[in-house]
Design goal:
94 residues; 86% helix; 0% strand
Length: 94
Amino acid sequence: MKENIRKRIYEEAYYILKTKKTLRELAKEYNLSKSTIHKDLKDRLKSVDLTLYKKVQTIFQNHIQTRHLKGGEATKKKYQKTSIVRTKTRLGMI
């Protein structure tokens, strides 16, 4: 494995451990695709540093366990916003 890729993998791993950000957020920070981040932290990290890999996987598992909650909150906000607009329209405020 090239040294620059190895360095990038370590940077991504330590960053996700420090910030607990999602893959999408990490991809934006590093200006890489989600696929590249995923491959770095799921496949390549395992062959580079197994201990660090296990720590990162616990964060991924946490994200997987809570994603349905985040999706539910987003949907709730979306429908609350449309409900407010409908109410204001009916009352002639818009």
